[in-house]
Amino acid sequence: MTSTTIAPVAASSAPAGATPPPPPRRRRRWSRSAIFGLVFVLPAALYIVVFQLVPVIYGLVLSFTTYSPLSRSGPEFTGVDNYAELLGDADFGNALLVTGRYVLQVLPITVVLALGLALLVNRPFKGVGLFRSALYVPHIVSLTAVSMVWLWMYSQTGLFNEVLGFFGAPAQSWLLDSDSALNAVSAMRIWKALGSNMVLLLAGLQSIPRDLYEAARVDGAGRWATFRYVTLPGLRPMLVYVVAMDIIYLAQGFAEIYVLTQGGPLASTTTVNYLIYTEAFQYNQMGSASAMAFVLFALIIGFSVLAVRGVMGRQK
Amino acid sequence: MTASVETRRVSALRRMRRGHAPGEGRVGSIIVLVLVTVLVMVPFAWVVSLSFTPQSEAFGSVSLFPANPTLENYASAFFDADLARALLNSAVVGLVTVATNCILAVLAGYAFAMLPFPGNKALFYTLISTAAIPISVTLIPLFLMARGIPLVGGNDILGQGGSGLLDTLAGVILPYIVMPMNIFLARQFFTSAPLELGEAARMDGAGELRIFFSVYLPLAKPLIAVVAIFSFTGVWDDFLWPLVVTSSQEVQTVQLALARFLGSGNVQYGPLMAGTVIATVPVLIVFLFNQRSFISGLSDGGVKG
Question: Bias regions of kind Low complexity — which residues (chain A) (predicted)?
Answer without folding.
Answer: 1-17
